[in-house]
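We emphasize that the prediction below concerns an isolated chain of 337 residues; any contacts that depend on oligomerization or on bound cofactors are therefore not represented. The input was used exactly as deposited, without trimming of termini.
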Amino acid sequence: MKASTVLITGIGGPTAQGILYSLQGLDDVRIIGADRREMTTGNQFCDKTYQISRYTATDHYMKDLEEIIEKEEVDVLFPSLHEELNLAEQFESLSIPVAIPDSEYFNDLLDKEALYKRMASLQLHEYIPFYKGFDSNQEFSAIMNKHFLSTKRVIVKEVTGYGAMGLRIVTDREGFMQALKKGEAKVVSYDDYLEMNFSTRRIAMPYFSGAEYSVDVYIADGKTVVEIPRERTGVSNGIVLEGKVLYMPELMKAAKDIGEKLVDNGFFNLQFMETDDGFKLTDLNPRFCGSQVMSLGANVNFPYLFIQHQVYGETLNAAPVWNVKMMRYRMPMFVKE
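Result of the prediction step, given as a token string:
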């Protein structure tokens, strides 16, 4: 079999390094890395690297990718930055598969409120938490008085936020003082929140105290190949440091129900909270995420599944190993410039 050449962007970040970790050492994979910085820790795990423009300079960025793809005869692109999802239309002009999910509802996957509305239209109500969308603090105040008057904590998110960006836990003054003592950085008092200025659309929903789970999913031709639930037991600055892969049929069914109605092909990640009323979807990441490397410990190599499916055209099979725990550790790297 001819070796496939993959191009991975943002190789200095945790998402790309999870993909690198999954693909390095495979005999039939050649890795080309790209980053806006000339030198990153990710350079050490690539066969060849390029310094490219920032994704914000779209024309230059796409030109850089196109030149690398042609020069290195790249077979597949793995974008690793969430912001690159905004370039989905530009990626369509490339001559190779791009590792973002194929979905007729792709734009809805990037907006939490639009996603919930789409799920409702597809009869997926049971997985939608109670939520209310708003633009202004005045609207938020009205929503609080009508729907959350007796609620101790309320979650507020930007509809296009990711990685806890823009997330706040709104509570009363007493709750805020208690959170301050515990070092809970995302908690803010209701009165202080109303003093903040926002220009983005947001949603408010109840604070769920149950366990949080992620599910990595791969779908091929509209059918689920595999779903891997995992519990995040240690998180620092949005990066999962410790977690465990679990066999949870109810959660796997939820991921399959949602995924097969929203996605036709590719990898994506779902995040759920466990509630008294079942599992509720809190986020959908239509991309490879930093913690998907946990599934590698469960004997499921999602980046390679994408290559098998999109490059080799193979029939996909997966045999997960359950109850595998992942723990990250820090390791120094020395590079002589």
